[in-house]
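Team,

Forwarding the record for the chain on the shared tracking sheet. I've put the sequence and predicted structure together so nobody has to dig through attachments.
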Amino acid sequence: MATRSDQQLDDTFAALANSTRRAILARLAQGAASVTELAAPFDMTLPAISKHLKVLERAGLVVRGKQAQYRPCALDPTPLEEVSTWAEQYRPVWETRFDRMDDYLQELVTEKQESVVEKEEDPHE
């Protein structure tokens, strides 16, 4: 059974799966912005940008303020911290695999170097 934490991670990963939404988050990392400001770099309508913002809001990555009629969007990094925590548990696995790959590549380099030396020593081969 999926927990709230599992659902939060699912929503966050789904939100991050789109390059437009990642670009919006990158812009919001610089500071709050209006929907119009967020839409400016994209060849999209305001309703299309609003749909992306709703996905980001549902994931908890974006919050909207209320200042009279101005509703600036801002980044909430908390879900990104949760993703980082989740991914961190796999670091030992990947580090071990990278270490094994480094060892294997070093063996290949050593074998290649030995092969070159042998050919240089025996030019009749």
